[in-house]
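for the record, two folds in this file. i put them one after another cuz i was lazy. first one right below, seq on top, structure tokens after. the second one comes after a little note so u can tell where it starts
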Amino acid sequence: MDSHLLGGLDNRAVLGQLFRTAFGVAPIYIVEPLGKTKEIKIEGFNPSVKDEFINEDQVLKSVYGTPIIFPIQFRGGDYTVYDWYGKPKMKRYDDLWLPATTMVDFSRAKNVIKTNVLGANGTIKEIFGFDDWNIRIRMLCLNDNRFKAREYADMLQDWFEIAGGVNVFGSIFSKKEIYNIVVEDFDIKSVTGSPDVIPIEMSAVSNEPVEIFLNKQ
């Protein structure tokens, strides 16, 4: 990312400050190995090269030229939206990679029914499975080599208009067997003095399509 995109300041430091201002939390940048207080001696070290599988997520590059370890993509396709008259219609969406400055949090609960036991301590637990994944997506829309900050915000708002689930791609989702989400809340924030920085927070839940067949008799 060019320095002028963030006011001529050190970008890595500014990103942490922007996350803290917008969301109250800042990512940690580790520039040295944890616990290392002195220079490591490498005498006698004989490096070797070996082939190693590279995760497909690492193909996408950030504006710094570094690989994005867990990129997230909204999969394009035909989705249902509502027109001005409230009638459903199909709309075509293109694939959209979320900004590199994106953080995702996951939480999930079990569906547990507790029954009190008269005259005894504790409860009887009946577990009937798991609840949906609750997903919080926080991102900073910045001017990068793909889109402007305002273009990111407009496209994400357009995706929020979908009346149904959104197909997602990325190992951070697939490792949890999440391939479709429903966006329930969309919040556009602002940062004072930074018109080219648009914080956006999305709340979503995992979605597993279920097909119901009706037999006419």
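(here's the note) second protein begins now
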Amino acid sequence: TSAGGGGVRGGLYTQTLQCLCSEGGVPASTFAPLLQRLCCHDHEAVPCDVFRYGVLTCAVFSDYIRQAQRLYAEVCCPAEGIASRRLCLNVLGTLKEALETSQGCDANYCVNANTKANTSLEANLKAIRYLQASAKISPLRLAQTMAGAQTLGPGGDMDAKEFEDAAAELFIARVKFVS
């Protein structure tokens, strides 16, 4: 633990994040870029608020990736096990839109820049916004996206791993680096 403020060592923090992601069924190749943003050096002391932010982010990321995997399963052709690139890009566009909407800050919960930042509250709000964003991908929205995919766009197919990686990139791009 760190002197004074409490916390854990960087090595334990990193192991915890790895366990959260792998226990959630997310492949290591998918969560590795997320851990690059969240990890600390083994010898560093990780304050409790940073630990909480990392844990919440990994838990939400695991849920988000499972939902992305289910979305892919809904749009892929069962006989072939692959999906139309055009359709996948439309679904990814919907995911991106949901994530972008979720990044807005509710005026009632924003931390005043002139006061000490409450990173725990901020982490909770961020986790809630990400969960709300993933909930926006409803069966109705998916049906609308599938109907929209009938228009012109790139042809070919997209496999499940490519779709998962693209969905992960959309999420990870919104995660702050821990330094």
